[in-house]
Amino acid sequence: MNSRLNSHWEEIYKTKSYEEVSWFQDKPETSIQFFEKLNLPKTANIIDMGAGESHLVDYLLDKGYEHITLVDISEEALNKTKARLGEKGKSVKYIIADAGTFKATEKYDFWHDRATFHFLTGIAEIEHYTQNICQSLNTGAYFLIGTFAEGGPKKCSDLEVYQYSADDLSEVFARCLTQKKSLKVDHKTPDGTTQKFTFCLFKYDG
Question: pLDDT class for 201, splitting at 50, 70, 90?
Answer without folding.
Answer: very high
